[in-house]
Amino acid sequence: MTKATPHIQPNGKKIAKTVLMPGDPLRAKYIADNYLENVEQFNEVRNMFGYTGTYNGKEVSVMGSGMGVPSIGIYSYELYNFFDVDTIIRIGSCGALQENVNLYDVIIAQGASTNSSYVEQYNIPGHFAPLADFELILKAKQKADDIGATTHVGNILSSDTFYNADPTFNEQWQRMGVLGIEMESAALYLNATYANKKALGIFTVSDHILRDEATTAEERQNSFTQMMEIALEIAE
Known about the structure:
Blueprint: E1 18-21, H1 25-35, E2 37-43, E3 50-55, E4 58-63, H2 69-82, E5 87-96, E6 106-114, H3 134-146, E7 151-158, H4 169-175, E8 180-182, H5 185-195, E9 198-208, E10 213-214, H6 217-222, H7 225-234
Helix pairs in contact: 2-5, 3-7
């Protein structure tokens, strides 16, 4: 196990086998402060906070990933390959595309379509579909049902563009049945697959792209508790 990388420097602090990974490092701090016991901070490089503690007796880490495929691509690669992490569960917000998906619903990302070129590094002779770990999907759906969360399981889009110059961009992905848009999971799923590790993305709908509905930044940071609880409960 690597002691440090340019981006993660634990200084002897432990990183658990399962890491919850929100994009926002302040959401990582919120989870550590409100859900974990016996917490130690293992990373603060570039203010990308990482913490390890226990949840119901299980050792769990939580760390921010930053925004976009390149950022989570770096952090998840290092966690899987240099710090012996087995499972990363991304928890974040997304914009809904389908009419039956509403604000605060939970999306469990079975697959992650993308307009990113991240997959090209593998020189695959075709179009590879990045998928989550099936056992994690099953566990997450069961736990979501147990707590009464409104959930949707299916395909999401990891987009490299937040502001897209093509006015038909969202409608084209909606037509293909994509549930929502975020910016990271495809890289996470690809890294997990290539390293023979596990990954899953669980999202709270923060806005509805086609209905012009949105939550506030404070709500996104502090109020999306169902996805956090689902991820913590299925942490291995």
